[in-house]
Specification:
By secondary structure, the chain is an alpha+beta fold. The chain folds into three domains: 3-117, Potassium Channel Kv1.1, Chain A (2-Layer Sandwich), CATH 3.30.710; 126-223, no CATH class; 232-373 and 380-414, no CATH class. The chain has twelve helices and 20 strands. It has helices at residues 41-45, 51-56, 72-82, 92-104, 108-115, 144-163, 181-191, 201-213, 217-223, 303-313, 349-354, 363-373, and strands spanning 27-32, 35-40, 65-68, 119-123, 126-130, 175-176, 226-229, 232-236, 245-246, 256-258, 260-261, 271-278, 286-291, 296-302, 321-322, 326-332, 337-340, 343-345, 385-400, 403-414. The protein has a five-stranded mixed barrel with strand order 13-14-16-20-19. Strands 2-1-3 form a three-stranded mixed β-sheet. Strands 5-4-6 form a three-stranded mixed β-sheet, sandwiched between helices. Strand 4 (119-123) and strand 5 form a beta hairpin. The longest helix has 20 residues, at 144-163. It comes from Lodderomyces beijingensis. This is BTB domain-containing protein. InterPro entries: BTB/POZ_dom (IPR000210), SKP1/BTB/POZ_sf (IPR011333), T1-type_BTB (IPR003131).
């Protein structure tokens, strides 16, 4: 029975037919470095045309020993490939050496196999084999490794062809310096669906930072700390992405509805958004002003909080006051849970202090607010404005068309920065 008629069950996409470029039964000799390899014409024809088939196709060469001053260890993999075996590559240097020699020998079939292999990279001091299947989902590709692999291989080809080199130059695989191999190992585990490797909130933030660096955008969103309750999704302001926002309120401003959110690249329903602002470490970045004279409550965000709000919301909403350093929202407190100086307040505490708070101030009131904002609070009549520094707060963004205001869900504040700080339980 000939080699080409063996009754072997194969995958549908695999074509066992091999063209007769060289006589299939004839054996040819190839010396690579210190080792002699003997291959049949069938094996050499299986990935053709190549340097081998072109050399042995000349009648005067068919009995010669073809010599290459290359690595026999690398050629072992090529030998297995030509014999029809799948090859296993274990590290980044082995991949680069094999790819270089596949180009050197003109083995287009092997080069195609290699471009479909897993990705390899050295991160920190450790070599990683990154399963290609893990990086195919929307949001995780293109990424650092897919872009780098395409650029590295194409650039090397261009150099070799442009300089007409006798053999490929020494090539190094992708090396990522200054990043943690331990964190990357944990990232791969989360990619595989094992979030139990996340040890703490600090560890989660580090992993999210690494995911952004490598452009694993879907993975980053998968790791975002969030809660889902009563049709709402609760996230920290720092984790909001602009592309996740949607405004269900009609443009004619006839109905007020909460801004909605769905984490980008994650298959989940759109829910009403509640975002949390943590400002305890930066006093003064989130301040609530209760104006007794106008019966208006406003929240002013500054510095890092302001910068993030601008990044996420600017251009999507009006009805806010924005200058170079701050953003001011009108705010409501109908059903909020409130702690002031560690004491729980009743639900009507804002109304009790300043009177009824209109949901949307008139244009005159907005103009007055803009003018009064330019004056220092210390210039106001004592007791006219109550200033509360927010340590931590949760808000809904209510939209009426493109007009936006905040509705408090939960706040923890101090009436003075000298007050003792109280942590959440």
């Amino acid at each position: 029975m000939s080699l080409t008629t063996l009754p072997i069950q194969t995958f549908d996409e695999y074509d066992p037919a091999v063209p007769v470029v060289l006589p299939h039964e004839k054996v040819y000799s190839i010396q690579v470095g210190y080792k002699l390899f003997r291959l049949s014409g069938l094996s050499l024809s299986s990935d053709s045309p190549s340097y081998f088939t072109k050399f042995f196709s000349h009648p005067e060469n068919k009995e010669k020993v073809l010599f290459f001053d290359r690595s026999p260890q690398v050629f072992e993999k090529i030998y297995n490939h030509l014999q029809g075996y799948s090859i296993n590559i274990t590290n980044d240097y082995e991949f680069m050496h094999l790819w270089s020699d596949a180009f050197y020998f003109g083995l287009s079939g092997l080069r195609k196999v290699l471009t479909e292999q897993d990705y390899f990279a050295s991160i920190g001091s450790e070599s990683f084999k990154i399963p290609r299947a893990l990086l195919q989902s929307k949001g995780n590709s293109p990424n650092y490794f897919t872009i780098n692999a395409e650029r590295l291989l194409s650039d090397n080809l261009q150099v070799i062809e442009r300089k007409n080199m006798m053999r490929p130059p020494p090539q190094r695989p992708a090396v990522v310096t200054g990043r943690s191999s331990d964190l990357f190992r944990d990232l791969l585990e989360v990619l595989k669906g094992n979030p139990s490797v996340i040890k703490s909130e600090e560890h989660r933030l580090l992993l999210m930072k690494e995911a952004r660096y490598y452009r694993f955008l879907e993975l980053e969103q998968r790791m975002v700390s969030h809660k889902v309750c009563k049709g709402c999704i609760v996230l920290n302001l720092n984790h909001l992405a602009r592309r996740g926002l949607s405004n269900p309120s009609p443009s004619d401003k006839s109905i007020e509805r909460p801004m909605q959110y769905s984490r980008p690249y994650i298959e989940e329903p759109v829910r009403d958004l509640i975002f949390q602002v943590d400002s305890e470490e930066d006093p003064g970045t989130a301040v609530l002003f209760l104006n007794k004279r106008t019966s208006l409550a406003t929240v002013v965000f500054r510095d890092k909080v302001f910068a993030k709000l601008v990044q996420v919301f600017k251009g999507l909403i009006s009805g806010t006051i924005v200058d170079e350093t701050s953003m001011t929202f009108f705010a409501g407190f109908g059903r909020s849970h409130t702690l002031i100086n560690g004491r729980e307040m009743k639900s009507s505490w804002v109304t009790d202090l300043i009177g009824e708070n209109p949901a949307f101030p008139s244009e005159e009131e907005r103009d007055e607010k803009r003018a009064s904002k330019k004056r220092k609070m210390s210039d106001k009549v004592e007791g006219d404005v109550i200033e509360i520094f927010l340590k931590r707060s949760m808000w809904k963004l209510l939209m009426r068309g493109n007009l936006g205001r905040l509705e408090a869900v939960s706040i923890d504040g101090l009436t003075g920065l000298g007050q003792e700080r109280i942590d959440f339980l």
